[in-house]
């Protein structure tokens, strides 16, 4: 039986992470574990995760590194290394998932294939309401929702909308899934990509170059993205250029990724379980 890991990335927004993790507890099918990739959050987030661990029916692993700038790729590689699952479903800590999210991803799982999911974006008004309530009661017809069709779950429509694709540029790390073995084969996320932007599509391009198929999943695996102000994007163009070089040169493996982190000892990372 395939073991499913839910991977959640976060940084210093415990209010959003709380809502996200509460949605995990409502899943019709639970993952085998929840692994949280924490890029340097403060103690409040650790306390929140410790409390969640007490309420969660599956193991919870908290991977943390010190706050030394935007180093998301590094902590994601650390979290995948800590995961025991064969198949990784990845979201961000500002994503609230539908109760069928994990079940839908399992249904769409294919050998040697990674997934591009979608999201409905909540505008500021409804985001504040969700954060205040601690839960997300939002649907296709709710006000203040962008990309509302992405909030519509339909098994019938999914028969027509879920398909293979070569469009790696629209893969989003906030709703994606991949086999751990395929991830390791391309050396995971590129640790040289620092700052916001494009680490997800750069990984997707290498997976695709290595022969891993891309599957678009629509009308299933519904996810809601809480509104927030943009992070600094000072490195975005540099990261985009790396992605474009991967496409041009058909790069399959990054030079500084998953494997390189495994060989580092006594650094600033900690893992709690």
Task: Kindly list the characteristics that best describe this protein.
single chain; 273 residues; alpha/beta; nine-stranded mixed beta sheet; four-stranded mixed beta sheet; 21% strand
The ordered string of helix (H) and strand (E) elements is EHEHEHEEHEEHEHEEHHEEHHE
What does the average pLDDT come to?
A: 93
Q: Report the total helices.
A: 10
Q: Given the helix and strand composition, which structural class is it? A: alpha/beta
Q: How large is the share of residues in beta strands?
A: 15-25%
Describe the model.
By secondary structure, the protein is an alpha/beta fold. The protein has helices at residues 14-24, 43-55, 72-82, 101-107, 124-133, 155-161, 180-185, 199-209, 236-249, 258-262, and strands at 4-10, 33-38, 60-65, 87-92, 95-97, 113-116, 120-122, 145-146, 163-165, 175-179, 213-216, 223-225, 269-272. The strands form 2 sheets. Strands 9-11-6-10-4-1-2-3-13 form a 9-stranded mixed sheet, with helices on both faces. Strand 2, helix 2 (43-55) and strand 3 form a beta-alpha-beta unit. Helix 1 packs parallel to helix 2 and helix 8 runs parallel beside helix 9. The mean pLDDT is 93.
């Amino acid at each position: 039986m395939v073991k499913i890991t839910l991977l959640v990335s976060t940084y210093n927004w415990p209010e959003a992470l709380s809502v996200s993790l509460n949605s995990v507890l409502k899943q019709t099918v639970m993952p085998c574990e929840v692994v949280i990739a924490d890029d340097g959050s403060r103690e409040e987030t650790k306390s929140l995760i410790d409390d969640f661990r007490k309420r969660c029916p599956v193991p919870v692993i908290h991977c943390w590194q010190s706050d030394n700038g935007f180093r998301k790729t590094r902590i994601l590689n650390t979290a995948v290394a800590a995961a025991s699952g064969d198949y990784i479903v990845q979201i961000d800590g500002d994503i609230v998932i539908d109760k069928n999210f994990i079940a839908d991803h399992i249904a769409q799982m294919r050998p040697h294939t990674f997934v591009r999911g979608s999201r409905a974006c909540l505008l500021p008004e409804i985001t504040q309401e969700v954060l205040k309530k601690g839960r997300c009661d939002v649907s296709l017809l709710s006000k203040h929702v962008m990309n509302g069709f992405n909030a519509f779950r339909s098994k019938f429509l999914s028969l027509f909308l879920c398909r293979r694709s070569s469009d790696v540029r629209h893969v989003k790390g906030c709703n994606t899934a991949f086999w751990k073995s395929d991830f390791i084969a391309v050396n995971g996320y590129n640790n040289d990509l620092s700052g916001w932007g494009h680490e997800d599509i750069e990984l997707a391009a290498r997976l695709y170059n290595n022969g891993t198929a891309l599957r678009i999943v629509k009308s299933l695996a519904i996810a809601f993205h809480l509104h927030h102000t943009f992070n600094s994007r000072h490195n975005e163009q540099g990261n985009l250029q790396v992605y474009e070089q991967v496409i041009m040169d058909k790069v399959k493996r990054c030079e500084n990724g998953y494997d390189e982190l495994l060989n580092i000892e006594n650094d600033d990372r900690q893992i709690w379980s």
